[in-house]
């Protein structure tokens, strides 16, 4: 029998302390997991130089003479400020225009979603994936149209069936076909949706369609890899959990805004026990909403000065 060699934990602690100190951190007490931030001359130089350069570039860009020339030469590209400012607002940033349209016209859906999800989890936790799928489907139907909702369900069905075949390569083939179908199908979705929903509703649906390709690829590949790791020898066709995968694919907070969350991370968050609804949790939720509102106002204000 081999004799066990004692491990010198002090050496490991010293190594971690030295590594943390070299990166500008202090280890609090004897706990190597508690790392405290410490300012160093290098960090001060880095942040002052970085923030100063960004502030200088934004200031020069916001006060350039060409900006006034563009406003006078092409006034159709600008709208009056919704906040009563003298500075006109750029209306040519279609990415932000469509995002603002979705947020201003559907903000009630976004605020109601976590409240109803929390109530569902309190009453019947097993119905949370069903709630996600149904609520998001209704959101897509009333915002973009029933045709878009059926299209998203068809996307999920394609990846759902592909995942049951346990072929990772086939999942990538299906994703490629769905992405490239617009290049060889004669149907023009823009000409169909524009008279019914308008341009502001078409582009968010177009973006969500491509987000769904990544989400469908994620849940199908992650499911196949999870089944492979089990290695039970069972070659029968096993289907992914329908409501959980559909709720993941149509999860309202990311269905249009993105970015796509990995399916394994989504399942881990859903399976974790939810914290109790305390005043602290409510305050944190309100703070996050206010932070999102501040980001929205920041983007709106930047559209007045950066063209």
From TrEMBL:
<protein>
    <recommendedName>
        <fullName>Acyltransferase required for palmitoylation of hedgehog hh family of secreted signaling</fullName>
    </recommendedName>
</protein>
<keyword id="KW-0472">Membrane</keyword>
<dbReference type="GO" id="GO:0016409">
    <property type="term" value="F:palmitoyltransferase activity"/>
</dbReference>
<dbReference type="GO" id="GO:0005783">
    <property type="term" value="C:endoplasmic reticulum"/>
</dbReference>
<keyword id="KW-1133">Transmembrane helix</keyword>
<feature type="region of interest" description="Disordered">
    <location>
        <begin position="1"/>
        <end position="29"/>
    </location>
</feature>
<feature type="transmembrane region" description="Helical">
    <location>
        <begin position="132"/>
        <end position="154"/>
    </location>
</feature>
<dbReference type="InterPro" id="IPR051085">
    <property type="entry name" value="MB_O-acyltransferase"/>
</dbReference>
<feature type="transmembrane region" description="Helical">
    <location>
        <begin position="44"/>
        <end position="63"/>
    </location>
</feature>
<feature type="compositionally biased region" description="Basic and acidic residues">
    <location>
        <begin position="1"/>
        <end position="19"/>
    </location>
</feature>
<keyword id="KW-0812">Transmembrane</keyword>
């Amino acid at each position: 029998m081999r004799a066990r060699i004692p491990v010198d934990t002090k050496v490991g602690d010293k190594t971690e302390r030295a590594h943390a100190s070299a990166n500008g951190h202090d280890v609090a007490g004897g706990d190597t997991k508690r790392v405290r931030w410490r300012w160093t001359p290098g960090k001060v130089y880095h942040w002052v130089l970085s923030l100063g350069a960004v502030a200088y570039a934004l200031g020069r860009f916001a006060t350039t003479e060409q900006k006034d020339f563009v406003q006078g030469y092409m006034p159709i590209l600008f709208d009056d400020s919704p906040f009563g400012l003298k500075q006109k607002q750029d209306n040519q940033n279609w990415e932000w225009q469509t995002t603002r349209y979705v947020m201003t016209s559907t903000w009630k859906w976004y605020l109601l979603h976590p409240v109803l999800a929390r109530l569902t989890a309190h009453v019947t936790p097993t119905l949370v994936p069903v709630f996600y799928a149904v609520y998001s489907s209704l959101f897509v139907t009333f915002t973009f149209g029933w045709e878009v909702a059926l299209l998203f369900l068809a996307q999920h069905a394609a990846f759902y069936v592909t995942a049951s075949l346990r072929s990772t390569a086939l999942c990538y083939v299906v994703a490629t076909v769905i992405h490239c179908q617009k290049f060889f199908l004669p149907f023009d979705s823009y000409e169909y949706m524009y008279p019914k929903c308008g341009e502001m509703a078409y582009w968010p649906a177009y973006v969500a369609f491509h987000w769904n390709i990544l989400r469908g690829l994620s849940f199908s590949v992650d499911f196949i890899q999870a089944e492979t790791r089990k290695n039970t020898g069972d070659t029968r066709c096993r289907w992914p959990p329908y409501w959980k995968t559909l709720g993941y694919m149509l999860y309202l907070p990311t269905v249009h805004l993105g970015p796509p969350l990995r399916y394994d991370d989504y399942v881990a968050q859903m399976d974790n026990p939810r914290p109790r609804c305390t005043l602290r949790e409510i305050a944190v939720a309100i703070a996050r909403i206010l932070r999102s509102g501040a980001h929205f106002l920041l983007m709106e204000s930047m559209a007045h000065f950066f063209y």
